[in-house]
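Document type: protein sequence-to-structure record

Subject area: structural biology

Format: plain text, a pair of labelled lines:
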Amino acid sequence: MIITYHNLQFFKVQFGDTVLAFDPISKDSKFKGGRFGADIALISIKHQDFNGVEAVTVGNKEPFVISGPGEYEIKEVFIKGLSSRSGYEGKERINTIYTVNLESMNIVFLGGLGGVDLDPKTAEAVSDADIDILFVPIGGGGVLSSADAYKLAVNLEPKIIIPMHYEEAENKDALKVFLREGGSENVKPVDKLTLKRKDLEGKEGEIMVLKAQ
């Protein structure tokens, strides 16, 4: 599995010939993101900063789009969408948390989650996911603050934590605060993250920071 970061909450996750895009940034957004072909696009919030399906529709690659709660199986990828809330841009919004199982690894993508108090069914499903990789927003301003993000991440007990939604955050120190909360001030950003199942052995809440491409 190869993970690259394309600003805000936009990630590319590739395994073999299959490509997943999380929260692609639309051309109508004020933020800039990448462009590549995806097989599956997962949208957490129906907002131009997160629903740019056109950015991951390239050539013959037109993604299967998931933009809300439900259970899905596409190309041997098992996905569950779970309802939650966001306060992005000061407005109450529906946010979808995604659990994804692929290559015997479990990903949880929190999207633009705005608070740590989850609906009981959502909380149970996320807690039961046996999380290998957790994507967590940390920038505040309607999504989780750095401190709340770290507390929630620790409670969910993932093997790897990937912070997101901080480069454009109102709080410019969001990443610094998050790393300090985790005692990981010396973590250096990497261009991409390449993982196999065996690489996760022995990891407990390790924070990995990716550079935006």
